[in-house]
Amino acid sequence: MADNAKPISAGDFKPVTAGDRGNLDNEKISAPSLTFLQDSWRRLRKNKAAMICLVILIILFILAFGSSFFETHNPNATNPNLANLPPKIPGIDINGFNGTLDQSGTRINAYAQAHAGNAYYILGTDYLGRDLFSRILYGTRISLEIALIASFFDLAFGVVYGIVSGWMGGRVDTIMQRIIEIMLSIPNLVVMVLLILVLKPGMSAIIYSIAITSWINMARLVRAQTLELKNQEFILAARALGESSWKISFKHLLPNLSSVIIINLMFTIPTAIFFEAFLSYIGIGISAPQASLGTLINDGQKNFQFLPYQMWYPAIVLSVLMIAFNILGDGLRDSFDPKGRE
Amino acid sequence: MENDKNILEVRNLKINFNTYAGTVKAIRDVSFDLRKGETLAIVGESGSGKTVTTRSIMGLNSPNAVIDGGTIMFKNQDLLKKTRKQMDEIRGNDIAEIFQDPMTSLDPTMKIGKQIAEPLIIHKGMKREKAYAQALEMMKLVGIENAEQRINNYPHQFSGGMRQRIVIAIALVNYPEILIADEPTTALDVTIQAQILDLMKELQAKINTSIIFITHDLGVVAGMADRVAVMYAGKIVEYGTVDEIFYNPKHPYTWGLLNSMPTMDTTGTELPSIPGTPPDLLDPPKGDAFAARNKYALEIDTKQEPPFFKVSDTHYAATWLLDPRAPKMTPPEQIIERQKHYAKLTHKTIDQHKDTHVEEQEEQL
Amino acid sequence: MVKYLGKRIFYIILTLFIVSTITFFLMKFMPGTPLTNQAKLTPGQIHQIYKQYGLDKPVWQQYLVYLAGVVHGNFGISFQFSNQAVSYLIGSRIGPSLIIGGQGMILGVLVGLVLGSLGAVKANTWIDTTSTIVSILLVSIPSFVLAVLLQYYLGLKLKWFPIADWGGFMYTVLPTLALAASPLAETARFMRTEMVDVLSSDYIELAKAKGLGKVGIIYHHALRNSLIPIITIIGPLTVNIMTGSMVVENIFSVPGIGEQFVKSVLTNDYPTIMGLTIVYCAMLCVVLLITDILYGLIDPRIRLSGNSN
């Protein structure tokens, strides 16, 4: 085996000097060191589906919150003359986007019938002649606002509750856990409905009811994780060094809880969006004339047989929103905890 | 098979792992024999390829492992060429394995009686009652008291040492010809370790099986093995009988391993260690993989891989230090002590067979 | 075990007591009375009606009367359907809800288990991808959208099933499908994660080393170990079904308690809302208790520690 290589000279059998050995050093760290979050971000970027969803969500955010700047129609302005117009995008002549409707087998130009002139609605109008596109954007904004509010309470209340419960332990923990157990044995929706009835339906009632119900899961997970971390050596070391509980929570506990918090946040958001749409759908959420994806779907559903676009578009936007948050949440979980999926 | 005494012959085994960072050359041309009834210890640090080698024998490497060449001959058949179904018939029947951590290697929701009887039912097609009766015998054999009652217990009702006895019972219940023990005592207390090792030796005598014993702990090897193979960075760097490796080691890596093992004679306060870390097998170094950590490295080590040099009929080492052209190096003091001891041990044999110029060269080293 | 059961039942009663108390006082703050929507009554008539509902007494007396009633399963009289006891209303409507809810749960969990295990066993193949996509879709698409689509396409267009109303088994199919979506998706996701975890565990490695084939490993070792934790998500799934039933029953006109709940909410029928809230909580508590007991019975690790305590 040795003989097949190039000839060996006697000089090769010199001991390697100390200087040469330095060049052989294999302990050099060639890759830059990454923090936990950087590493997770690197893994997340490799997850195509999650990245696509992130982009979709960013676009929806920009559209929804920027909508007041380029909205062509007022989402709440009614115009009974132009009611139930199908989608029309100028210059596109595909059935479904050219302003024609299928009425008992024949396609008719609904815009001409309504004497709409040059007006066009890219996603059509509803039964009161309101622009569906603007209303969907407005509804999306409500959904996203709800998402932000739910995340805020998750962080502000759920995380603190979980850390306090887990960290204090003993009787405090027992009492705090009992409260959670009681909350868990009432279906969330029932709690929300009761609150909304007391507070009168509307945006603020929805916000309060989501605030009261959304943090429970977060609190449980954070508590479990805190209990686990509490007894680990690095926390014990910090305690032994006399650091205050506050400092330990912020410096040592929170960074180690970050993955649990972020992952759970990503699952709180679609749940909150769902509940808002649900409440609006059954008629005790966002009240008319304001639009929410839930009310839009409810309105559209009545005409689904004849004007399917009135339900399809808000339903698609709501579903895309939920799918995007769910896939992004899955992606984040996998990137924080790579052992779950190869 | 090249030799009738061998039960297993591994030749030129090469295994790569495809990872996102590139191809890891985990096993780089490994060859060894396992004789009937012997215990072969494979020693090396983490990542040296001990476990990958044995997983290949079992056909249990992870899906991203690619066999790049070589053969594993067992009963005149190449195990690497067998299908998964054919390997299923061999695993647990002819070749069995014991794993490192007894706390996690038993199914937590299955009674241990069934877990021990399972290989009998699979391979011997036994009826439940008969298999359980035999499982009970096996439990007694591995030293589980009250076996009649405990056969219906679940794993969490046993201590770590007891669980490892159960794992051994599962492995041996079919009287396999080869038993692979992958660091079977690493996860156990020292006192339990000794018991488990004694048990394995005792059972080996009773059922006449060959053992491949994987460990990073040379201390365990001394009492257990007949022969030792030292692995480093995906290669075997030295192999020989247990006396040869312990008292007449030739490879600087073996010196390092032996030096870092405390003995009764160890004096001083600090235990020597091998500096540095093993090389990155994504891109193995040219020449001798150990060169960078080797105090005795030669220029040639950085250019060309050393071949195996014969030390005795049973003892080979892959280091350029054994080349006749190599300068004389003084091994660490402790190794010289060991070699003196070895010289005494083998004095008569050397006198009788004057066939070893390598041996003489040793004396000069 | 008996001690544990006693403790759990005590906590259930405590929870129900707290829930009834909170709902009672919440409802007291509500605008609206039985007389809302009924204009032009003489003061005498109003007094008459107040007396009928017990609203002429001080609040604390009303509370005690209510609590005493709840203990006996009497939730008062509905505002909406005068002269109908809430308990009668609930009793006559709980059947259909239990049928479609139960069917939805069983169907969802069973299909979810199959889908999730397939995804794990065939990890990173097209089967896995399909199973993941199906569960993401079903977990994301709101039940009210799904129900409308099912009704339109399977009911109206294909005419496979009646589009609404309540009759024989055929009437239950569409609501069951709509309700099954959420437990199906959740179970599949949970099962896949659980099974992937189990399949990479040491005892599965040992089972392979025993020479057990792929089917044997999954059937004898992997399935059982990943099935046990599934029991823990039955509680949350029940909540999903309850939530879903409120819209699904509405869309398919199923005369169940979900439909009743929404109707009562929209008409401010407080006694019925209170009664249904308590019934929902009681059902959930019972489900949680049963799943906890089941978990203890099936998982040998918990079972034995329970016995020794």
In a nutshell, what does this entry contain?
The complex is a heterotrimer of chains A (342), B (365) and C (309). By secondary structure, chain A is mainly alpha-helical.
Structure notes:
The complex is a heterotrimer of chains A (342), B (365) and C (309). Chain A has helices at 18-24, 36-46, 48-70, 110-113, 132-168, 170-184, 188-199, 203-230, 233-240, 245-282, 293-302, 309-336; strands at residues 100-103, 106-109. By secondary structure, chain A is mainly alpha-helical. In chain A, helix 7 (188-199) packs across helix 8 (203-230). The longest helix of chain A has 38 residues, at 245-282. Chain A is flat and about 95 Å long. Helices cover 35% and strands 22% of the residues of chain B. Chain B is built from twelve helices and twelve strands. In chain B, a hairpin with a 2-residue loop joins strand 11 and strand 12 (315-317). The longest helix of chain B is centred in the last third of the chain and has 20 residues, at 333-352. By secondary structure, chain C is mainly α. Chain C has a domain at 97-267: MetI-like fold (Orthogonal Bundle), CATH 1.10.3720. Helix content of chain C is 77%, strand content 0%. In chain C, helix 1 (2-28) packs antiparallel against helix 3 (59-71) and helix 6 crosses helix 7. Chain C is flat and about 85 Å long. The model of chain C is unreliable at 304-309 (pLDDT under 50).
Element layout with pairings:
The complex is a heterotrimer of chains A (342), B (365) and C (309).
Chain A: H1 18-24, H2 36-46, H3 48-70, E1 100-103, E2 106-109, H4 110-113, H5 132-168, H6 170-184, H7 188-199, H8 203-230, H9 233-240, H10 245-282, H11 293-302, H12 309-336
Antiparallel strand pairs in A: 1-2
Helix pairs in contact in A: 2-12, 3-5, 3-12, 5-6, 5-8, 5-10, 5-12, 7-8, 8-10, 9-10, 10-11, 10-12, 11-12
Chain B: E1 6-19, E2 22-35, E3 39-43, H1 50-58, E4 65-74, E5 77-78, H2 84-90, E6 95-98, H3 112-123, H4 128-141, H5 147-150, H6 160-172, E7 178-182, H7 190-207, E8 210-215, H8 218-224, E9 227-232, E10 235-241, H9 242-247, H10 252-259, E11 309-312, E12 315-317, H11 333-352, H12 357-364
Parallel strand pairs in B: 3-8, 3-9, 6-7, 7-8
Antiparallel strand pairs in B: 1-2, 1-4, 4-5, 9-10, 10-12, 11-12
Helix pairs in contact in B: 3-4, 3-6, 4-6, 6-7
Chain C: H1 2-28, H2 43-53, H3 59-71, H4 86-121, H5 126-140, H6 143-157, H7 169-199, H8 202-209, H9 214-230, H10 234-251, H11 257-266, H12 270-298, H13 300-308
Helix pairs in contact in C: 1-3, 1-12, 4-5, 4-7, 4-10, 4-12, 5-7, 6-7, 6-10, 7-9, 7-10, 8-9, 10-11, 10-12, 11-12, 12-13
